[in-house]
Design goal:
Order of helices and strands of chain A: EEEHEHEHHEEEHEHEHHHEEEHEEH
Structural class of chain A: alpha+beta
Number of strands of chain A: 15
Low-confidence stretches of chain A: 181-191
Helix content of chain A: 25-40%
Strand content of chain A: 25-35%
Oligomer: homodimer
Chain lengths: 408, 408
């Protein structure tokens, strides 16, 4: 049984973390370090944006099957920085490796912040040295790392679970993620990029890679705040095996636990979308295949018209069908079913492709369902068996304000 | 030489128009009628949204090579209305045909307004009969038609040109379009759908069809206000040949004139995007092929992050590159060039893939360029010769307000 507990990335055996102020940002913590006692099997998901930040390029090129540490800075994304940016990302790895007395290839690197500015490496070097001397275990250190990478988020995207695997070993999984936070005006702030670190003391082999991809596809890759994918998105899973159990690659209990952690993180990122007041969950079923189900979900959660209608609790469900129509996926308009849920309300909208109602009273029911912190759209395409779920948020005045004033 | 003149859809020889109040809307004109003295060669572009409104389905099924009249209602989109909607659209054609004493297949039909409500056919029938008795020629009648289809637009999307063709014939082209208008709160209003009527007294044969598609692809199909394509978009070109010249299919002067008209309409739709304060023109060059150039343009003009940055004159050009990276098109990051223009300013941002500047003074120049009613982004992908241009608008508080309150 998967059990959520109060914990973070240092909850699994053998992980230490910290966060320090290097000076890249004016005041707040801006440099984080995570280290495992022993080399951990590493599984990494990267942004598929063709413009990749320097740290992403470096990590992808090295593609190390194990990592022992990860260094992360905020305040500067080290993106669109050309050859100099690549050198800076390499230097971050080298400095951390020297401080921790490990091979540079064993150090992962992530950056988030403004695009198109060179890193101040003097400050970053200083920060890494400082962090290396201050690593620790426990909630205090989880929080320091969290602060260093997620200062602008309004909700902490952190969780931990424990689960007893099939062979009897108790293992822990901890995760932290930085997503699009709501932003105080007139500050230089982070944006959009999601950086995630997941630690576990379970043992995994390189064969686990496709399963990690599957979990990412079902969770992180189904979150959308604005459809704009960052140059820096990176999600690292480190499994150091220090719980001493058997290899968990094929253990369904481990999969269940990891998926629970990643689903929680994904939902929290959506809830904390820039300016968001509501979580939108979209469940598409009856699709021809999984790819089509995902495509329909994404078209709906990315539609500015759907998102702003939900912000205003405007019962304009035609926009959901318009978004479906634009997704290009196959559906049977004569059989489509659409339900909107929120709070205690569950309102059928379309049945067999036709509006269930025309009267004002029913319109009011849709409005009431939409007037909740969490609104769920269920859409049955009536052409197959495949299903997908995704998460997004409403489009609000604050989204516009935040993004019109980002770098100023 | 193409000359813009004060005119509209009744400027070309042989076209009459009007607009009346049928009662579908509370007060304003809501039903328009256009008629040609003789059957006109008809070329129609439809929404590619898979959820098509009833009038679109009916028009596509009949696919008539000639049209003599077009009937248009606003206030109700007749979309998501199932079999009954199809019957209603057919009835609109039949009633108009009977009134005008022509074959129903000679009548085009378009609707715009709320989705998912049945038409009040009693009112619509009344409106069509009334309109048929009040057709006329001249600016007064252009305006009545305009009012009936575009009451919520803040800018009239109408123009006319004259051009002397290669064979010496003087021909006229008139156009009117209804796009996404800014909306007074708490009213039931139109949305998003673009309906366009283009009239000309030039003579065209059915062979002109691919050229019409090319012009639509270069103009109307390169406009995006929010990336959400309507269920109702329809663009009808009627050529009645009453100028008595030779067939203009292959006359480059006619193509130039028609493209000038459609470009003007397209730009005006973007300028009048919901809540818009600025026109954004995106020109992508150096692309591998035209499809890729268009794809890159659309990804950039649809990016909420780019749109909100331009609203706030926020010099966050990294977002343009992020959008390019997400478009999936090929580019050479080592050679990419990016320039932002606005007013008198023309600011190079990236040259050979690297930032041209780092200093605050230059950031200020980008801000000044963005602080104009019209902002142009020029992006050279450095992998080929193809080029495309598109138009969009900024994402503003008013966009959110309008769309959060649309149907309420």
């Amino acid at each position: 049984m998967v059990e959520f507990i109060d914990g973070g990335v240092t909850t699994p055996e053998g992980f230490k973390a910290t966060g320090v102020h290097s000076g890249v940002k004016y005041r707040s913590l801006d440099l984080g370090l995570l280290r495992s006692e022993v080399p951990a099997s590493a599984f990494v998901g990267y942004t598929s944006n063709k413009v990749k930040a320097a740290p992403v390029q470096v990590m992808m090129r090295e593609n190390s099957p194990t990592l022992t540490a990860v260094v992360i800075n905020s305040g500067n994304a080290n993106a669109l920085t050309g050859r100099r940016g690549i050198e800076d990302a390499m230097t971050m790895k080298e400095v951390a490796a020297a401080e921790l007395n490990i091979d540079p290839v064993q150090v992962g690197v992530m950056s988030t912040g403004l695009i198109g500015r060179f890193m101040d490496m003097h400050k970053v070097r200083f920060g890494i040295s400082k962090a290396a001397g201050e690593l620790g275990v426990g909630r205090k250190y989880d929080n320091l790392l969290a602060e260093a990478i997620m200062t602008t988020d309004t909700i902490k995207k952190e969780c931990a679970v424990r689960v007893r695997l099939s062979d009897g070993t108790m293992v822990y999984i901890g995760a932290i993620s930085k997503g699009s936070g709501m932003i105080a005006p007139h500050m230089k702030v982070l944006h959009g990029t999601t950086l995630s670190l997941v630690t576990t003391d379970a043992k995994l082999s390189p064969a686990f890679r496709p399963k990690w991809q599957q979990i990412l596809d079902d969770t992180m890759n189904m979150v959308s705040v604005d459809g704009d994918q960052s140059t820096n998105d990176t999600c690292i899973l480190m499994a150091n095996g220090m719980a001493k159990g058997a290899c968990a690659d094929d253990d369904p209990l481990f999969m269940e636990a990891l998926k629970a952690v990643m689903t929680k993180i994904a939902r929290t990122i959506a809830i904390d979308g820039e300016g968001a007041t509501k979580l939108i969950e979209v469940n598409v079923r009856g699709a021809k295949d999984e790819t089509e189900a995902r495509k329909a979900v994404k078209q709906i959660i990315n539609s500015p018209l759907v998102k702003s209608a939900i912000f205003g609790s405007d019962p304009n469900y035609g926009r959901i069908m318009m978004a479906l129509g634009n997704s290009g996926v196959e559906f049977n308009l004569e059989e489509v079913r659409l339900v909107i849920k929120g709070g205690e309300m569950e309102v059928p909208i379309l049945d067999a492709g036709a509006p269930v109602f025309q009267e004002e009273r029913s319109v009011e029911a849709v409005r009431m369902a939409m007037d909740n912190k969490e609104v769920t759209i269920v859409l049955d395409l009536a052409v197959g068996e495949a299903e997908a779920t995704g998460w997004g948020c409403d489009l609000t005045y604050d989204y516009v304000r935040i993004n019109a004033e980002y770098s100023t």
